[in-house]
Structure formats: structure tokens, C-alpha cells
Amino acid sequence: MGEDLLAELGYEVVCRTSSREALALFRLDPSSFDLVVTDQTMPDLTGIELAKEMLLIRPDIPIILCTGFSHLVDADSARVAGIRGFVMKPLTKREIARTVRKVLDEQTQS
Question: Strand, helix or coil at 74?
Fold first, then answer.
């Protein structure tokens, strides 16, 4: 999805291409993250698996899952897994901006 896009929107971004590295970094200081955006298709852990691991560590972390066409995951199965945002690729800047803002706003209201 691109850290450049989120940085362009004014967010401070920490990017990892490995799900295992992302999880290890998250474990070091879970409270330093306001939001996690992950792709469903990655080596090692899928986006859903990564989300489940992160939610075990910090149940309130908002997570957005990005995916292309997949018969394995949809918005409903993502929601059941605790994921708060679901976007289909290809992403537009407007769509990701709206989804990130919505998920963060919902987080501050709860």
C-alpha cells in the first residue's frame, strides 16, 4: 500500500515488509502504535494471522487489512477476527485516507 501515501497524508509511518519483523517490533512496544495497516498476502503470517497475534498482545489496537481478490477473506471474516477496517486493492489515496481516519476516530470514541 505504501508508506509514502500515509506519510503524505501526515501520518508517522513505521514500515516492515516481513510479518515476523512487524510482529517482533510490535511486541517490543505495543503502546507506541496507534494503528496497524497490513496486507493479507505476506510470507510467513497472513494479514489475518498477524492481526490475531497483535490483538492477543494489545486487544484495543485498530487494524486495517488490505487485500486483492481473495476467496479466503472478506470484510465479514476480517471483522470477526477483530479487524476494524477492510480495503480492497488497488487502493486510492482517498479510500485509504477515509478508512484510516474512520478507524482512528472510532478508536478515540471508544
Answer: coil
